[in-house]
Amino acid sequence: MTETTSGPTGRKGKGPRKGLKLKRVFTTADTHPYDTLEWERRDVVMTNWRDGTVNFEQRGVEFPASWSVNATQIVASKYFRGAVGTPEREWSLKQLIDRVVGVYTETGRAHGYFASEEDAEVFDHELKYALAHQFFSFNSPVWFNVGTSASAQVSACFILSVDDSMESILDWYKEEGLIFKGGSGAGVNLSRIRSSRELLSSGGNASGPVSFMRGADASAGTIKSGGATRRAAKMVVLDVDHPDIEDFVETKSREEHKIRALRDAGFDVDLGGDDMFSVQYQNANNSVRVSDAFMRAVETGSEFGLTSRTTGEVIATVDAKDLFHRMARAAWECADPGIQYDGAIQDWHTNPETGRISASNPCSEYLSLDDSSCNLASINLLKFLREDDTFDVENFTRLTEMVITAMDISITFADFPTESIGETTRGYRQLGIGYANLGALLMATGHAYDSDGGRAVAAAVTSLMTGAAYRRSAELAGVVGPYEGYGRNEKAHKRVMRKHAAANDDLRTVGALEKPIHAAATVEWAECLKVGERHGWRNAQASLLAPTGTIGFMLDCDTTGIEPDFSLVKYKKLVGGGSMQIVNRAIPRALGNLGYQDEQIEAIVEYVAENGHVEDAPSLRPEHYEVFDCAMGRRYIQPMGHVRMMAAVQPFLSGAISKTVNVPEEATVADFEHIYHEGWRLGLKALAVYRDNCKVGQPLSAGRTESAAEETPAAVQAARPVRRRLPKKRPSETTSFSVGGAEGYITAGSYPDDGLGEVFLKLGKQGSTLAGVMDAFSIAISIALQYGVPLETYVEKFTNMRFDPAGMTDDPDIRMAQSVVDYIFRRLALDHLPYEERAALGVLSASEREARLNGEDPAQIAAQVESYAQSAGSAGPAPDTPRRERSEPAAEAPRAEGFMADAPLCITCGTRMRPAGSCYACEGCGATSGCS
User: Fold this and answer.
1) What confidence tens digit (pLDDT) does each residue in 149-203 have?
2) Which of 126, 365, 665, 673 does the annotation list as catalytic?
3) How far apart are CA 126 and CA 108, in angstroms?
4) In the annotation, is 365 catalytic?
5) pLDDT in tens, 604-628
6) How far apart are CA 286 and CA 330, in angstroms?
7) HEC string of 526-589?
8) Residue 368: how many CB atoms within 10 A of its CB?
9) Which of 695, 685, 680, 657 is nearest to 320 (CA)?
């Protein structure tokens, strides 16, 4: 690692090649890297969220004391190999790292990567140090497979190809299935398949690609059900000029209408519901590949031609603006399709002489040749923030070059699911170095995510990473040769390198933090071009930004990939079980960087711990609020803030960015059109937008706004409350419910003249501790109601309270509950509070939410509701309201509790998953929704 230099090499094949000379950065020759850490033994016991049974148990595992309980559980349960309870089972992180690094070092030694045995030892020690200290991590397949008797599969991302023949289509099904079986994901472009408007050679009508998507979707659903992975992650792409594009665009939105009809008819269409199997196309992300010509036609309102796959002639035309609107409308309804921008993708393509880039992996960050794969690794950025809040440029650069070296070595020994994928990957050696913890780095240094300063820091770091990666790739080309396809693509590859360097020259720094980072990046790009001119490059691609789901938890990252912080308050697992609520570690550091004193910081942190946001925190200046904006919560980052961040770093990436832009439920179709258009204008390669609560088959979220407290004049002394008892005979209503698999009953008694007066809660077996506590809780609430405590006070205090059991409910108005108490008081509010009070608290029925989206008055709907059964409703058609002016953000949506992506529940442990790029990751057990 570092100041690594290559020895004398033969130019154009002349003279002998010598391996890399490596210098120690993190380690010393007389100390083993493991001896720089304090190690301890821990017990890992993971239980089932439904019945408390043990899912996984391994006692006495060995990990550094600095590693969190969560990281320990995830690594021990997911990455340790060998049958639990046998001597062959790994029990120490040292064994895991030794298993993987041993293969990398031996392969590098055998293939001439190192100048001497001493250099091989330096590589071995530096890599072990970086992994044990959580500086970076390889993607999951490396930890699963390398050094075991299994196939040495190291790639997480795959791109397949399909031609216009039945044989090729069936091969697609088979290859996709093999990849899913191993827990990875794949993408494919179906645009070569002739459309349903064209004829077969036999004279009959062709089926078209959408028809063949059904078979692939059913296959993916079957493999998913086998349990190899939570979701068979796949991407299906269709070019915008394909004659079946209109059918493709609305494929999943039509199915979403079907889901709503099934739900209203009483079928089980919740996530994983028994009746969801009749719904098609749910196992893939769909994207439209749009061309610059199409986007210009959208701007001018022109006609756009659809091209025959067999003759290349235009066989139909569409109104480009109308098609674009339909794409946005479908995405508004069900989050699909996303968009991939072909102009930007091909413009940054290093291998156009070999073929076009036609597809991506499921999360759209890996964009490369057909029948190829990419292995990933992510750097923990927060590890390079020094105590004085400067960025450790030198060590970050050294780590980057070491990781790239290791990743390239892995291609040498890797196995691949198909021969064609192996040939392409070995011929072009695509790598995907990236990072995690960007959001935490920005907050800790006092940078707002959606700010010029925040974007400048992100761009500089990304430029340095990619520049150092390609510089090392050029050095590797001088040691072990360029990639096989470099010769035919030399001119194009050099052009793309110059484009990256030019983008770095155009980068404008804003603050002190990024200036030295940008200066170092400038040096790296200059050296990259210089060395690459002599030797070429070892890798066709070097960098991208992956979701870093499971490995982000392994690294104890606060934020994943390019994402901002998720929320200001989180839950930390404790040794021995249980958890505690903690305020993000970045907040005190950020406040210090912003100039606050210790006592002010303490007061602000205490306020955040109690309220979950920073607005009105003591001593905190309003101009600093934006530093603490998160992905969700009272102050959430506006959608275009995410798009602008992606645009800032895209010019410094070989691939693209795994990220879904979440928008609030109130967003309109016009908002989607605006975001998709801006993504093209700003030079992104891919973009997906998700509207909160748009999918029926996903858990819904609910927020609340804070109601203003009424002040009592100081001169008026409050009278002592008098208990108003209920009459012997009073009306009551009993509601059964299920929250996260826990069943119970609510019996609510009312005064004859209306008004809730008592609540009885049944949960758990009679005589159990839980039942006793709930009885006592019921009595306390009932007596307080009779003494005049308003129900809305309890609703305000108890909604959003989080503890197990939590998760999906069987209530169509409240699809997701943070706890049983959260559900109970939402249900009581819906049944016993008037609309105005519920609206202020953010508690609405399904039909009221529908009315609000359709521009109707929810109060009128509420007035018609006479019972819980009548309150169930379904989302209606998308309101084609004009796009809101960007100059008036306050009018878009109240920045109260904000919105939360309606993420699925983890099928393994039941925890609500967290967005990680375009996927979801579980903080409880490390499971992901398909991306490794």
Assistant:
1) 988 899 999 999 999 999 999 999 889 888 877 667 899 999 999 999 998 877 7
2) 365
3) 14
4) yes
5) 999 998 888 999 999 999 999 999 9
6) 11
7) HHHHHHHHHHCCCCCCCECECCCCHHHHHCCCCCCCCCCCCCCEEEEECCCCCEEEEECCHHHH
8) 31
9) 680
Other Cβ atoms within 10 Å of 276 Cβ, number = 17
Q: Which residue has the tokens 């929320």?
A: 567
Report d(CA 606, CA 239) in Å as an integer: 53
What token pair was written down for 783? 């007596």
Q: Are 457 and 447 in contact (CB under 8 A)?
A: yes
Q: Which two tokens stand for residue 365?
A: 């960050």
Residue type, 68: S
Residues sharing a CB contact under 8 Å with residue 339, sequence separation 6 or more, in sequence order = 287, 288, 290, 327, 676, 679, 680, 686, 687, 688
* Residue 652 bridge partners (DSSP): none
CA dihedral 585, 591, 594, 600 (to 10 degrees): -170
Long-range contacts of 263-269 (CB under 8 A, 24+ apart): 263/696, 263/812, 263/874, 264/872, 264/874, 269/696, 269/697
Residues 822, 687 contacting (CB under 8 angstroms):
no
User: Within a 13 Å sphere around the CA of 296, how many CA atoms are in the beta-carbon half?
Assistant: 6
What is the spatial distance between Cα 932 and Cα 925, in angstroms, rounded to a whole number?
A: 14
Tokens of 658: 């795994």
Question: Which positions ≥6 away from 704 have C-beta within 8 Å?
Answer: 796, 799, 800, 841, 842, 843, 896, 897
Q: Respond yes or no on whether the N-terminal peptide bond of residue 894 is cis (omega within 30° of 0).
A: no
Q: Rounded distance, CA 618 to CA 111, Å? A: 61
Nearest alpha carbon to residue 379 among 546, 184, 585: 546
Buried/exposed 299-331: b ≥16 CB within 10 Å, e otherwise:
eeeeebbbbbbeeeeebbebebbebbbbbbbbb
DSSP annotation of 415 reads B
Cβ-based burial of 867 (10 A; exposed 0-12, middle 13-18, buried ≥19): exposed
Beta strands in 766-911 (DSSP E): 807-811, 814-817
Q: Which residues pair with 809 in a beta bridge?
A: 739
Q: Who's near 66: CB < 8 A, 6+ residues apart? A: 37, 38, 134
CB of 905 within 8 A of CB of 913? yes
266, burial (CB in 10 Å: exposed 0-12, middle 13-18, buried 19+): exposed
What angle do the packed helices 639-649 and 452-480 form, to 10 degrees? 30
Domain map (residue ranges) of the chain: 1-133, 732-871
The partner residues of 234 in beta bridges, in order of sequence, read: 186
Q: pLDDT tens, 303-314? A: 999 999 999 999
Say which of 70, 361, 504, 539 is annotated catalytic.
361
HSE at residue 224, side-chain half, CA atoms within 13 A, is 21
Best CA proximity match to 481, nearest among 19, 2, 3: 19
Mean of pLDDT values over 441-457: 98
- Which residue among the candidates 139, 256, 286, 363 is catalytic per the annotation? 363
- Interatomic CA distance for residues 19 and 831, integer angstroms: 74
The verdict on whether 539 is a catalytic residue reads no
pTM over 0.85: no
What pLDDT score does 883 carry? 34
Amino acid symbol at 833 = L
CA distance 414 to 689: 35
Tokens for 301, please give them.
């309102």
Residue 888 is a catalytic residue: no
User: Distances from the Cα of 631 to the Cαs of 365, 449, 520, 689, 898, in angstroms?
Assistant: 20, 10, 31, 14, 9
Q: Can the peptide bond before residue 805 be classed as cis, meaning omega within 30 degrees of 0?
A: yes
Tokens of 789: 């405590």
Residue with tokens 């992180």: 93
According to DSSP, the residues that pair with 582 across neighbouring strands are 570
